[in-house]
Amino acid sequence: MTTSSIPGYRLGDTTLPKSPLTKDDLATLKTTLLFGDADVAALRQAHGVVEDQVEAILDVWYGFVGSTPHLLAYFSDAKTHQPLDAYLDAVRKRFGQWILDTCRADYDEAWLAWQDEIGRRHHRSGKNRTDGVSAAPHIPMRYVLALAVPISVTMKPFLAKKGHASAEVEAMHAAWSKAVLLQAILWSRPYAREGDF
């Protein structure tokens, strides 16, 4: 599947509004997260490890969300409370691409703009618009941030499946965890008052 065949996927879309954050802002945030060149290299190594495991990773994550009623509600019809299968499928395709994008670790202006868009898609300012669904209209920021933990913790077994040395697995996992938190922080920007982010 190419990225152009994933509905709603917009990394690199030049019509997205530019992020108000600069590359310098991103650099200082990465410094605060202790995220450096070694992490970029470890993420890029992880790309080759997980690229053929994306569906299995998504099975774990979707199993968690599907078995957690307060999370599944954000993918369910707001009136009937029934899961919206087409919505779950569409998000799954983008989520799978997000795994690979995270491992590519290409932090340019297009990536920053895409993080803003992802944040809006969780916030009431943009939730449900991409897929035209009637799910819950807003995901509270607490869940956007909290999900960084299960998305990080559950990745480690997949990073260990290709026989890399323990130190390499640890480095890939640490880099993955930092990258996930970095993005969750960026996704929280629409939730902050002007000047507070």
From TrEMBL:
Top-rank taxon, per record: Bacteria
Entry-linked SUPFAM superfamilies: Globin-like
Gene3D superfamilies: Globins
UniProt cross-references to CDD domains, sorted A to Z: Pgbs (cd12124)
Domain Globin-sensor: 23-195
Protein name: Globin-sensor domain-containing protein
Species the sequence originates in: Mesorhizobium ventifaucium
